[in-house]
Every structure is written in C-alpha cells, then in structure tokens.
From TrEMBL:
MF-aspect GO terms: kinase activity
Domain of life: Bacteria
TM spans (from-to): none
Enzyme class, UniProt record, top EC level: transferase
Keywords, alphabetical: Coiled coil, Kinase, Phosphoprotein, Transferase, Two-component regulatory system
PANTHER family xrefs: HISTIDINE KINASE (PTHR43711:SF31), TWO-COMPONENT HISTIDINE KINASE (PTHR43711)
Coiled coil: 150-226
Domain called Histidine kinase: residue spans: 233-449
Protein name: histidine kinase
Entries under SUPFAM superfamilies matching the protein: ATPase domain of HSP90 chaperone/DNA topoisomerase II/histidine kinase, Homodimeric domain of signal transducing histidine kinase
Species the sequence originates in: Paractinoplanes pyxinae
Reactions this protein catalyses: ATP + protein L-histidine = ADP + protein N-phospho-L-histidine
Length: 449
C-alpha cells in the first residue's frame, strides 16, 4: 500500500457541538477503509468519548485520521490533539474504559499539546488501500459535509445578519429579530444538551455491551482452541494403530504360508480398505485441526503453475477411471504466481478429487485466468449438482448433501471446509456455484503477487 502515512482527513473541535460532526466523520472514514459495521460503531463511539473528555476544560482540539502499518497488519489511526499540555494522568484514567473499544489507545505529550491516539486494525477481508484508493477516499471525504442542528443554526444566523444589514434603520424589527434569534438559540442549546446526555448514556451502554461481547469472544476462542488440540491429539494417537492395521493386513494377504480362501481374501481386503478410509479421515482431521489452530504458515515463493498443473494431471489421472468422463487440466496462461506451492496444490487436488467422485459422465476441467491483479482458478464438473440452499452448508465440517453418493471412494465431509480454510490462509477466497442435475463450479481467487 502506498501513501499510508498521509492523513485521510482533519477536523477541528472548537465547540462541544463539533463532537457530533467528529463522530459522524469517524463512522464514515471507518466504513471507507473497510472496517466492519460493528467496528465502525466501536471507533465512532470511542472518538466521541475522547472528544468529550479532551474538550472538558474548554480547550480546542484537532482530529486526524490516518492509515498505517501495525506490524504485519494495517490499522486506521485516529489522533485527537489538544492545544494545551498537562493533566495526562487524568485523561488516562477517564479514558481507560474507552480502550476496550479499540486495539490501542495512548495519551502522549506532543510538541504543541496533549495527544490522545487510538488505532483499530483492519480485517483481512478489507480491500487493498492502494494510493489511488486512498486519493479516492480523500476526495470523497472532502465532499462530505456533515449536517447537524448546530450547522443549520449557523446558516440561519448568517442569513439573519445579512437581512439585518439591509434593514439596520428599522430598530424595532432588529430588536424583534434578535429576540427570536435568542429564543432559537436557547431551544437549540436545550436540544443539544439533551442529545449530549443521551449520547453519554448510550456510550456507557455500548462500552458495557462490547466488554461483554469481548468476554464471550475470548470464551469461544478458548473453546475452539481446546477443540483443535483435541482433534490434533486424537489424530496423532489414531494414526499409528491404523497404519499398523494396514501393514498387517497386507502381510496377511501377501505373506501367509498357506493360501487364503476366496472368502478370507475378501475379508482381509475389507479390513485393509476400511483401515485406509479411516487413515484418510484421521489425516483430514489432523490437517483441519492445524488450519483451525493457525499452525499452517504459508511458505511464500514463486510457483511454477505449468509444473504444478502437470503434476496434478499425472497424479489424478488414475482416479479418472470412467471412460464417460473427460478429465481436462488446461495449460495455464499465466506461468508463475507468488504463493505456497504445497497449500495451493492441496486445494486444487481436493477440488478435482471431489469433482471426479460425483461426476458420472461429461467432463471435469481445471482452468486459470487473470482477473485484475488476481488469479482465478476454476474447477467445473457435470456431476449431480448442489441445491442453491445448501451451497454454503457444503463448507461445514462433516456435512454431506442429502441423497448424494460418491461414485468412487468415500467422502469424509472435511475436504471442502479444509480447502476454504487454506484459501483464506493464502489470502484469497473459495466459492461454489451449482445447478442441480447440471454440475458445479468451484472458484478459487488468489492474489497473483
């Protein structure tokens, strides 16, 4: 991303009414840079509270919005600078509860005054903030004119002053207009104070609510981590005995001193086949547990797509045993891309294997094309298809479409969830489109560099 240190926007806080303007602009900036709706509310609420506390002693302040790198991630940073020094401990104490709404909140002694700055990390799904995109956001924000009762009153005051200049000689009318203006001011200020009290009460409620949500989120994260550890431990413990069963069944079939009867050979083959299916399930569980626990770190390198497609064509060709099905892997138009070769190959192999299992006749095809700065891999088949209401459910662990039956091999219900998690780890996304009775298309979209 370019232009990361250049401010997106600045706004001055001279009177308390400007806090409403800052809150509205905070939400607008958060939306433009890609924060989710919940985090937009968090940032706007935090900015409103900081502005109220900083201006409590009557000092002016300036709010600056920027986007910067925070380690390996990107964050929106909001600085509120007060034009006076001192009293930082009081500000830290009064703003302690606000820290729950953002990822970072600091109170510093700047060159021209006290600076309170806060940061909120952008989600991985946020669009890339290129220099052109940053310039586009700045242009949009510069045209954004927040409206409030105070803004409307200011406009009316200017119109009234112009009218009074024209009828200055009419003292009676001037007095009457001044009285109406004062009455309007009192009404607007009463409304403002009421709104300010309601806003403070709402902010306290929002802070308490988000504190509860954060606590629940930590509990869910701990439960997910415990589940991942359980799956990994169980998979490790099961792999050794299952492998032993496979080896012993092979010895029994091939190395017995006395020939086995036909029935015995069938039963031994059934043992070996069942153990192989169980080992596949154990390996899938272990891979899924690693992905969920965040233990899969991509090894970024230049990947030769032509070599990868050739390897997939050779290793998966034995699975395409039905003559009624054409198995086609097109030559990639793009020679290389920056990705993890092992993880990318796993995703494509998973999608192709799944397509071959559910396609009785027609075609299974893999293609890749450029879409802007991304590459789009598509695996299409002419299989049984998936009902529209079940498209997202096929990416749930252990879920299989009711009534569907693999034509070859047995499914575990873990392949597609694992493929989607790998796609996210590689910085992209995996989606499915399907028409029952006509076939399915799985699309993997990844950044090319």
């Amino acid at each position: 991303m370019t232009g990361r240190g250049e401010p997106l926007m600045r706004v001055r806080l001279r009177v308390e009414q400007d806090i409403f303007v800052a809150r509205q602009l905070g939400r607008e900036v958060a939306r433009e840079v890609g924060l989710e709706q919940q985090d937009q509310t968090r940032l706007a609420t935090a900015l409103s509270e900081v502005g109220r506390v900083v201006m409590a002693d009557g000092s002016d302040a300036e709010v600056t919005f920027t986007v910067r790198s925070e380690g390996v991630s990107t964050a929106i940073r909001v600085a509120v600078e007060r034009r006076s020094h001192g009293d930082e401990p009081r500000l830290r104490a009064e703003l302690a509860h606000v820290g729950r709404l953002v990822d970072k909140l600091e109170v510093e002694n700047g060159e021209t005054g006290t600076v309170v700055w806060m940061a909120r990390r952008l989600p991985a799904s946020a669009p890339r903030l290129t220099r052109d995109r940053m310039d586009e956001i700045r242009a949009g924000l510069s045209r954004h004119v927040p409206s409030s009762p105070v803004d409307e009153l200011h406009v009316q005051n200017q119109q009234l002053i112009a009218a009074l200049d024209e009828v200055r000689s009419q003292r009676d009318d001037l007095a009457r207009l001044n009285a109406e203006l004062e009455e309007t001011n009192r009404g607007v200020m009463a409304l403002y104070h009421q709104l300010s009290e309601e806003l403070e009460e709402t902010n306290r409620g929002v802070v308490a609510l988000y504190a509860e949500l954060d606590e629940k989120s930590e509990q869910l994260a701990a439960a997910s981590e415990a589940k991942s550890r359980f799956l990994a431990n169980v998979s490790h413990e099961l792999r050794a005995p299952v492998t032993a069963v496979i080896g012993l069944s092979r010895l029994l079939a091939d190395g017995a001193s006395d020939p086995l009867t036909v029935e015995q050979e069938r039963q031994v083959e059934l043992i070996r086949s069942s153990a192989s299916d169980l080992l596949t399930l154990v390996n899938d569980l272990l891979d899924l547990a690693k992905a969920e626990a965040g233990r899969l770190e991509p090894n970024w390198e230049q990947v030769d797509l032509r070599a990868m497609f050739g390897q997939l064509r050779g290793t998966l060709r034995p699975l395409a045993t039905r003559p009624e099905v054409d198995f086609v892997i097109d030559e990639p138009a793009v020679a290389t891309m920056r990705s993890d070769e092992v993880l990318l190959a796993r995703v494509l192999r998973n999608l192709l294997t799944n397509a071959l299992k559910f396609t009785a006749e027609g075609e299974v095809r893999l293609t890749v094309r450029e879409v802007g700065t991304d590459l789009e891999f598509t695996v299409t088949d002419t299989g049984t298809g998936i009902p529209p209401e079940l498209i997202e459910r096929i990416f749930e662990e252990f879920y299989q479409v009711p009534g569907s039956k693999a034509l070859s091999g047995k499914g575990t219900g873990l392949g597609l969830p694992y493929a989607r998690r790998l796609a996210a780890i590689l910085g992209g996304a995996l989606r499915a489109d399907s028409t029952p009775g006509e076939g399915s298309t799985f699309t993997l979209r990844l950044p090319a560099s």
